[in-house]
Every structure is written in C-alpha cells, then in structure tokens.
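Continuing the series of single-chain predictions for the mutant panel. This is the parent chain; the variants come on the following pages.
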Amino acid sequence: MPMVKPVVILLRIRVFRILLAATLLAPGLSGAASPPGAAVASGHPRATAAGIEILERGGNAFDAAVAVTAALAVVEPSGSGLGGGGFWLLHRASDDHSVMLDGREKAPAAATESMYLDADGQYQREWSRDTPLAAGIPGEPAALAHLAQHYGRLTLAENLAPAIRLATDGFRVSEQMHKMLAFRAPVLRKSPAAAELFLTDAGEPLPVGTRVRQPDLANTLQAIADGGRDGFYTGAVARKMVDGVREAGGIWTLEDLADYDLVEREPITFSYGPYRVTSASPPSSGGIVLAEALHMLEGFDLAALSGVQRKHLAAEAMRRAYRDRAAWLGDSDFVQIPTDRLLSPLYAAGLRGSIRLDRASKSSSLTPPNAEHRPGKGEDTTHFSIIDTQGNRVSATLSVNFPFGAGFMPPGTGVFINNEMDDFSAKPLTPNAYGLIGGGANAIAPGKRPLSSMSPSFIESDERLAIIGTPGGSRIISMVLLGMLKFTQGGTAQDIVGLPRFHHQYQPDEILYEPGALRESEKTELEQMGHTLKLSSREYGDMHVIVWDKQADRLHAASDPRGMGKPSVRILPGRAPAD
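Parent structure:
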C-alpha cells in the first residue's frame, strides 16, 4: 500500500502551490552552498516538463525522478518503461547520503543457464531477444514506489499524475520514434496489443505526427498510483502480465512478480585527482570499469600530451577495463567480485605498466577471461539528470534493452516487456546483442540480475559538480568516461554532451568512432601505432548532463544534440542567471 503522508505536509504543499513553487522558489542554504536553482535534463521534452511540473508543485529531486521515469515510459517506450528496469543514483543533501537504487530486472525462477541453447548447444539469438522468453522480471514499478515512499515529499499518486495524463491525452510520434518503430516492426507485428498501438492497419510504423493514446498504460499507472508496488506486482495487473507472457511462450509466474525486490546498494566511489566520482555498483559494471580506466589514465600527464596520444591512452585504458568486465563482473548477490582489488590504484598501476605511448596493445596479448570462471562459488535505453535547490540530485539510467524490449506487450497492460535476459552470458564468451562477452560470473541463474553497462554518475570537486549518464549499450561506459575527462578539463554541460565519441571494449579489438571524432591525421597516427579503426555508421548516445559551478554560482544543463531531449533550468530570484 502507498505511504500515507501526514496531513500537515499536504496542507503545506497546497500553501506552496498558492504562493510559489517551494522547491524552485524557496532558497535553501545561503550562497553557493546550495544550487542557484533546479534543473532537469532528459531524453524527451515532455518528460523534462513532467519533472519541472513536480518541482513546481513542491516536490524534491526524488519526486521529480518518479515523474520523469514514468513519463519516459509513456513517450519513449523504445528506451524504458514499466516492463524494464534501471539504476537510480541518488544524493540526499541534508545528510550527504548517496545510494543506488537497483531496479535491475531479475531472471524468472524457471530460468536455466542453457535456456537459449538448442539441442546442439548452439546459442539461439532470437530466443533471448525477440520473444517473451527474453524477459526478466521488471524492476521499474518497484523503484517508482520506493522513491516516492522513502525519499520524496509528495505522494506517489501526485508524482505519477503527469504520466497518467500523457498516456490518456496522448503525444505525437517523433521522427526518432518512427525510426525505432521501423527498426522493430517485424517483431512488433507478432504482438497484437503492440501492433494495435504503434503500427498502422497495414503493419507499418505510425507516421510522424500521429497522436498515440495509451489507455491501458494509463490504467496500469493508475493501479500503481492507487496500490503502490502491489498495484503492479500483485492483483489484476500482475495476472494480465503473467497470462500474456505465458500464452506467448514465456516462463513468468505470479510468484516471480510478487517476489521481486528492489535493493538499495552502496555506490562505487573513488577519486580522480581532486575529483570525487560516485557511480553505479554491480550488477552494473559502470562504476568499476570507470574507476579502472580513470586510475590508469591518472598516471599520465594528459595535459602535456597531444590529442592523438590522449585518445590512444583512453582506448588502451578502455581495452583493459573492459577485459576485466568480461572476466570478473556479474550480480554481486550471486558471485564474489574482487571489488577492492579492481578499485585499487595499485592494481591500475600494474595495468598501466603494459601501456606504451607509441604502440597499441593487442587484446589477444592480455590474459583472456576464463569462460568457466565462477568467483566464490541499455537508443534502447534512456537517461535523465536532476538537481533541486536543496542540492538533492538524481542520475538515472533506465532500459528495456533492445528498442521496445522484446517487442511484446501483454494484452490489457500497455506495457512492453524487456529483453534484458540477453545481457546474461547465454554461452561463455559468446557476444551478446552489443558484442560484449562474458563468462560464468554473468551466467544465467534463477533470481539473478544480468550484468549492465548503465553508468549513472556524479563527478565533483570543491568547485564544480556534474550529473552525467547516457544510453548506448556497451558504449555507455566509454561515453561517460570521455564526458568525465572533458569535465575535468573545464568543459561545460554543452561541451560534454556534444563531444565526439570513440570506443574500445576489448573485443572486438578495434576503436569504433563516430563520424567526425577523428581527424584524418589522427586516423593515420593511430593506425601507425597498430590500432584497428572502424567508423560507426551513425552517431550514438543520448547524454544528459547538469553542471553546477559552485564558485560562479551558476547552473547549466544540456541534452545531447544527437537526440530530441530538452533540458530545463529554473533559477531562484536573486541568484546568477542560467546560461
């Protein structure tokens, strides 16, 4: 049942609404000890507006996170939704408390390590990607309820109101959504409920500008607003979810839903020079891989090196950190991860010792991950960043994995189910949809959470703070890494999101780069060093960043020019203007 808020708080909120928005217009601490305003940056203007609306109603950053999460489920179902999960990295200013909400999906109880292998032991990619068998038990609804109950000021129902209104009144299909629908149309056609909403009668993607109304999704959101967590995981909604999944060949049970648990985890924290980094912990690989890469780079005087040398070193650090991802990382509730060693600057120094300034390594020369290793025994994702005037902040990355997840919608729910089971290592060292490999640490097991690359993060010094994250599958970590490096070089929020991107993930042994990310002379030098280069067919990522410059008392927010997101900044009266 949802938490009942004291009457006095509700009355206070109503007074704030009459006077002016409490969070946006009532100053917190004096001077630069608190931000000069509040900001929301997300992948869709309507989701950003939902967050601002809640802030203006007296909610804090955590209330706004509920509103943005739910709104994205309505207007950006290709990237996230109630049928998926994610990580919500929180910082509560009043007691300097940071925590990660792990709303990652869990394998159903009937899942087995070989469930995606045929009789000959061959991995069947379609089974873990395009069918209800690919779906883990969703975590997003549990996170919505938990955020509101334990961290918010407003009720869950108040926070969900903008999303329910969006689902009821509808929104227009964007060019971006049209492209995603076209990409997944062959799968969507197999799901009558999904096809009815998002395809034409001829089975083609809805044209740009078409208004989409989702009454079933509105009803599901209302059930959560009325019943909290139980509104989704038990009762009528749960029965519709399970019946729909099982009739289409999935293995969910009512017990799987009822047993889902959201976990509060201690984030990964480490230093990079004068900067403190807080990032996602396992079952995300983001924090540990970022720590390894930054610790390796910390041993070089990057400012004294040429641009091509810095890119070479970044690629070499990525190579080694992604190798350890494949070897060691998984769900820490199931496998023992040598976290202290992987986070140690001394360990990074050892890895750094094999990096040459003038020559690329070969991934084959590094100790390969052990396919049978069992220690101790994400486009298709979305991100948003929020800060309020008290300094509470949220960095959240959410996903259903592939665009529209498994492409299946249980009838009567309006919910796309995920295909996050593909993030497990279905067969040791066999690449998943994003080319990532893994071993036994990320093998499928009942109740286990698959390893993720989602990397919601904070990076801060005494002078500046950045809230950062992005979708992008296996490239998430490298994008956040490059964004953090740009921030430490004095980059603004706009500089960070607009930065050209390149990526190395150990295997395949190549630098993947965006159009325009490497100059012709840099390509030549990198190839002479021994790097293999591959041009990406398109730009990638959809980063959303907020930067608070404490010294200048300024707040900046930026959304990736590659996407359609739009940030919003509200500045308190008498404080520095927004850029």
